[in-house]
Design brief:
It comes from Mariprofundus ferrooxydans PV-1. Keywords: ATP-binding, Helicase, Hydrolase, Metal-binding, Nucleotide-binding, Zinc, Zinc-finger. Pfam families: Helicase_C, SNF2-rel_dom, SWIM. 36% of the residues lie in helices and 22% in strands. It is of the alpha/beta class. The chain has 7 domains: 93 residues, no CATH class; 35 residues; 187 residues, no CATH class; 109 residues, no CATH class; 138 residues, no CATH class; 236 residues, Tandem AAA-ATPase domain (Rossmann fold), CATH 3.40.50; 176 residues, P-loop containing nucleotide triphosphate hydrolases (Rossmann fold, 3-Layer(aba) Sandwich). The strands form 10 sheets. A 7-stranded parallel sheet has the order 37-38-36-39-40-35-41. Strands 5, 6, 7, 8, 9 and 10 form a 6-stranded mixed sheet that branches. The longest helix is centred in the C-terminal third of the chain and has 25 residues.
Length: 1095
């Protein structure tokens, strides 16, 4: 506490002047001094002036007896109100008897004095003095200590709210001069008010940046703020500083950056010395503040700590004077050596984050990720922006000056600019931010990872030393090994899916999961999965892969691109956490990386077993059944092997060979193997279009006669339901599946086959929903067109065969369908192809051309139903009666014309009821025409070139209307065609895929080797005529295998004609020659056969 001098009127006049003193004395005599209180050397008073509210004022004296005052009046200080208060205090001093003075005092004890009395009582009772805050008051005054230059400490006042956890909320700066205003914050305690008033009154301590703690006054403030329990080092979040025990200090000379030296007290743990009187120390690690035993009187220690620095180049006389005047126990100044050197500085780049304060009241600091350039002169670093001729370095008792190398600085800046960096000061977006020009930035922060990946190495080669600071968010790691592990997955069918882990071992030994890292990277940048992005990535040497903790990993670009390529659907679906892959994906990964390179790949024995699925040639050969009445071609045997492998592994697939390559016989062979092996304990259900029902029955009878077949078709099929379990194969249709579902659902099936499986392409159709509910141990789809319009059709079949393998419908659309169909993403297309490859076996004619015979004949039959069937029976009965009557009256030989006319009408009903003349009303649709229009689009889609023959030109007109409606281009040739050359040339030149030809007009004389498919819409008596028509395509110059399809209606005269072609070729010839042969046209038994009723 600074003691007050004795007050006299003379001194008041000396301090304030005669005029001011006189007016003040008048105020005092008039009783304008309302309140007067002394508190620790600070006099507080209230003096009534001209305003209604009294003025508040404070008076104190410095250690040199200098008056310091403050008043709330307009004058502010050293005014008549201060003079009145001094006269009042002088009167207090003149009272002789202190007891009488106390007795003379009337009224309540002033608040400040009352607090002092309370504190005195606490001390006398042995209690520590502390302020008490009411529970309702949460705001606090905080005192923050901070370094101030090399030799001082300053205090800054903050105000913040006390939180429930004991910490403080957001703080704001509080200026102590505010305490001198009329309004004192209510949350201030008396002790806070005393601290703030003294700081505000002592202008020698204050500055814009805080209040220096030095001398006696600084010590008094230091003690008070430490006692408050709210004094912290540099941050409000640091522990509160407490009073500690005195420690001894050692006087030493300290060198500053200029080479000047000054005295300081050295502490054992490098504590901070506060130059108060006497000096104190601050242990920032333990948050302790206490006096220092300097072995010198307080006044001497204060002078020593504040002595001017002894300059490096001072004269010997100055050094001698200093040595002479130093007290005992204080060492002499250091004897320094001074030298000059010239070196080439090393450019150092520090990657860090700065937050420079912008100008203006509302402008907030902005964070910049920067490269800070400094130049290293043999260990002495200076910022690039430093401009000096010499760089001074202090090393012990040596002072070294280095010559500034401007050229080296310029080269460093040029190198940084060439790398893509530019000075922060040139950033036009933040004109209000003031920063040093040694900070360099990139145009976009997103460019930092690539800059570190590529440019850092170049800069290091140029001699740069690069350091990444902890606050810099873009940290680049490197790895010394990469490992891809492929194995069996848990929780998923092991024959369908596997598990992959991809890890990198960093240089420090840390192992990083890269699957998760890649998933996050792709999730933020989905375009990375495009084919163009992957191709561009492969062109790079390395990429910056972001990791979960914000770091980046320098990863081999080609390896990462291929991981993304082969696992594309995994990352695209967002489910990379499990890294569950299909077998083909895993095999592709293994094959790609097993040849060496940066990534080491390892796999389990399980994956080697799965390899067979991806390559049809590796599938073990199945032993063909003894009961097979056919010789399979090699590709057909491979198809049987594949189906057997799928059955063995409890899987399913799609047999998708081109039309005519024998899908049915392959499936029948597969079923027969199951029967002969004893595994066919339940029947096989085949669901097919109506047009294929009898084709299955016929081929089963021909090639696998040991398989019993039940056809569930027709109005009487319910009578056979009880026999289902007794047959090897049960045939039904898609419409009947829905009608008979309750019966079929109850049966356990060994194998469920969907022929022309595109019928379930609409997953929401009744047939598609019902077929998923059937109980079957094994499943197989057969189709020549697994996809007709869109990828959703393919998904529907796989969802039946292997539910979930291609995700759910929504996810499939996101991962595959939309990118492929709308965006044309080839990478996604490749990923889908890879995924389905083991489970979709498709061979085109061109792939197996060497195995195919020159000509393959295929019979396709269809049932007539409903009105067409009734019409046929009606015509058959009428024609049968007419023929019987003619034979009865004229005999068989003379009845040929009647018989031929009757048979023609029956054949016309088979082809299309509209061909029959004389029929009235609405005519039923043609089952055969329907079957044709199911076949033709598929053939055209496969790229086939088709010749379609019919005996009836009127039938060709009906077909012409259908193919036109279907959008199929065609040409036509009949007896009425005058220009025969043009349609032939158009077909041969590949302009159209379909040629409609009447049997008589085009059966001979044409060379149509562009065709590879021949369809005989209606059978003709003479097989030679059909053969001649077929030979329009199957002739010299044909370089493709030819498929010949004969379309029949099941159980009708057409089927009988086909049988008679083989049995009675001579009869057919004689009919063609209109009876020229010696053999009768037909026997009575033949006529009965031709007119056999439908079964």
């Amino acid at each position: 506490m600074t003691e007050w001098p004795r007050i006299s009127e003379k001194r008041i006049q000396q301090w304030l002047g005669r005029a001011c003193s006189t007016r003040g004395k008048a105020y005092y005599r008039l009783g304008h001094v309302l309140d007067l209180a002394m508190d620790d050397g600070l006099l507080a008073a209230s003096v009534r002036g001209k305003e209604s509210d009294p003025y508040k004022l404070h008076i104190r004296f410095t250690s040199k007896a200098e008056l310091v005052s403050h008043c709330s009046c307009p004058v502010g200080a050293d005014c008549k109100h201060v003079a009145a208060a001094l006269y009042a205090w002088m009167n207090e001093q003149d009272e002789v008897d202190a007891e009488a003075k106390a007795e003379a005092a009337t009224g309540p004890v002033p608040f400040a004095f009352g607090q002092w009395l309370g504190a005195l009582d606490q001390v006398r009772d042995g209690q520590p003095v502390r302020d008490e805050f009411p529970d309702s008051v949460k705001q606090r005054m905080l005192y923050i200590l901070q370094p101030n230059g090399e030799r001082n400490v300053r205090m800054q006042c903050l105000t913040a709210r006390l939180l429930k956890d004991g910490g403080y909320g957001k703080a704001s700066v509080y200026s102590p001069v505010n305490i001198l205003s009329h309004h004192t914050p209510q949350y201030l305690l008396a002790s806070d008010e005393r601290i703030l008033r003294e700081v505000a009154m002592d202008r020698s301590l204050g500055s814009l940046h805080g209040y220096r703690l030095q001398g006696e006054d600084g010590l008094r403030i230091l003690k008070r703020i430490v006692a408050s329990g709210r004094c912290h080092w540099q941050s409000k979040d640091a522990p509160a500083i407490k009073r500690g025990e005195k420690r001894a200090g050692e006087w030493r000379w300290q060198l500053n950056s200029r080479g000047d030296q000054y005295l300081t007290l050295h502490m054992p743990a490098d504590e901070i010395v506060i130059p108060t009187s006497p000096p104190w120390f601050l242990d920032v690690h333990k948050a302790i503040c206490a006096p220092i035993d300097s072995a010198q009187p307080a006044t001497v220690a204060e002078i020593l700590l504040n002595m001017p620095a002894v300059e490096l180049d001072c004269s010997d006389e100055v050094l001698a004077a200093v040595r002479k005047h130093l007290p005992p126990g204080v060492p002499a100044p250091l004897a320094l050596t001074h030298e000059r050197r010239q070196v080439t500085p090393i450019p150092r780049l520090q990657l860090t984050t700065i937050r420079p304060q912008g100008r203006g009241y509302y402008r907030k600091p902005e964070a910049f990720h920067v490269a800070s350039l400094c130049m290293d002169y043999d260990g002495k670093r200076i910022t690039h922006s430093s401009r000096t001729e010499m760089i001074r370095s202090i090393r012990g008792d040596r002072v070294i000056d280095y010559t500034y190398d401007a050229a080296a600085h310029a080269r460093a800046v040029d190198a940084l600019c060439a790398s893509g960096l530019f000075p922060l000061r040139e950033q036009s977006m933040t004109p209000a931010v003031e920063v040093d020009e040694h900070y360099f930035i990139l145009p976009d922060d997103d460019q930092w990872p690539d800059w570190m990946l590529y440019e850092c190495a170049d800069l290091k080669e140029q001699g740069f030393v690069i350091e990444v600071m902890d606050d810099f968010p873009f940290r680049m790691e490197t790895a010394h090994s990469w490992h891809l592990q492929l194995g069996e997955s848990s929780g998923v069918s092991s024959a369908l899916m596997g598990h992959a882990s991809f890890t990198a071992t960093l240089d420090d030994g840390e192992e990083v999961d890269l699957i998760d890292a890649l998933a996050r990277w792709v999730g933020n940048q989905p375009k990375l999965l495009s084919e163009a992005s992957l191709a561009a990535m492969r062109e790079q040497q390395s990429i910056a892969l972001p990791m979960a903790d914000g770091r980046f990993l320098a990863a081999p670009a080609d390896a990462i691109a291929n991981i993304l390529h082969y696992m594309l659907d995994v990352f695209a679906s967002g489910g990379a956490a499990e890294a569950t892959l299909s077998v083909p994906q895993m095999l592709a990964l293994e094959e790609h990386f097993e040849g060496g390179g940066a990534v080491q790949v390892s796999s389990t024995a399980w994956l080697q077993q799965m390899r067979q699925l991806a390559d049809i040639a590796r599938v073990p050969a199945a032993v063909l059944p003894a009961g097979l009445q056919a010789t399979l071609r090699d590709y057909q045997h491979e198809g049987v092997n594949w189906m057997q492998m799928l059955r063995q592994m409890q899987l399913a697939g799609i047999l998708a060979d081109d039309m005519g390559l024998g899908k049915t016989v392959q499936a029948l062979t597969h079923i027969l193997i199951e029967k002969e092996a004893g595994r066919l304990q339940q029947p096989t259900l085949v669901i097919a279009p109506t047009s294929l029902m009898h084709n299955w029955r016929r081929e089963a009878k021909k090639f696998t006669p040991d398989l019993s077949v039940l056809v569930l078709h027709g109005p009487n099929r319910m009578e056979r339901f009880a026999e289902i379990a007794d047959f090897d194969i049960v045939l039904t249709t898609y419409p009947l599946l829905v009608r008979d579902f309750e019966v079929l659902e109850q049966q356990q099936w060994h194998l469920l086959i969907l022929d022309e499986a595109q019928y379930i392409k609409n997953a929401s159709s009744k047939a598609a929903q019902r077929v998923r509910r059937l109980m079957a141990s094994h499943k197989l789809c057969i189709t020549g067109t697994p996809m007709e319009n869109h990828l959703g059709e393919l998904w529907a079949q796989f969802d039946f065969l292997l539910p979930g393998y291609l995700h759910d419908k929504r996810q499939f659309a996101k991962v595959f369908r939309k990118p492929i169909e709308i965006q044309g993403d080839q990478a996604r297309q490749n990923a889908l192809n890879m995924r389905i490859r083991p489970f979709l076996l498709r061979r085109g004619k061109d792939q197996v051309a060497l195995e195919l015979p020159d000509k393959t004949e295929i019979i396709r039959s269809v049932d007539m139903e409903g009105a067409q069937r009734e019409l046929y029976e009606s015509v058959r009965l009428a024609m049968q009666k007419r023929v019987r009557d003619a034979v009865a009256s004229m005999g068989v030989a003379q009845s040929q014309i009647v018989v031929l006319d009757a048979l023609m009408k029956m054949r016309q009903v088979c082809c299309d009821p509209r061909l029959v003349s004389g029929l009235q009303g609405a005519l039923p649709a043609s089952a055969k025409l329907t079957m044709l229009m199911e076949m033709l689009p598929e053939m055209i889609e496969e790229g086939r070139r088709v010749l379609l023959f019919s005996q009836f030109t009127s039938m060709l007109k009906l077909i012409e209307a259908e193919v036109t409606a279907a959008g199929i281009d065609y040409v036509k040739l009949t007896g009425q065609t005058r220009d025969r050359e043009t349609p032939v040339e158009r077909f041969q030149n590949g302009e159209v895929p379909l040629f409609l030809i009447s049997l008589k007009a085009g059966g001979v004389g044409l060379n149509l080797t562009a065709a590879d498919t021949v369809i005989h819409y209606d059978p003709w008596w003479n097989p030679a005529v059909e053969a001649q028509a077929t030979d329009r395509a199957h002739r010299i110059g044909q370089d493709k295998a030819v498929f010949v399809y004969k379309l029949l209606t099941e159980g009708t005269v057409e089927e009988r004609i086909l049988e008679m072609q083989d049995r009675k070729r001579e009869l057919a010839d004689s009919i063609h020659q209109q009876g020229a042969g010696k053999v009768p046209l037909w026997t009575p038994a033949d006529l009965e056969s031709l007119f056999t009723p439908l079964g």
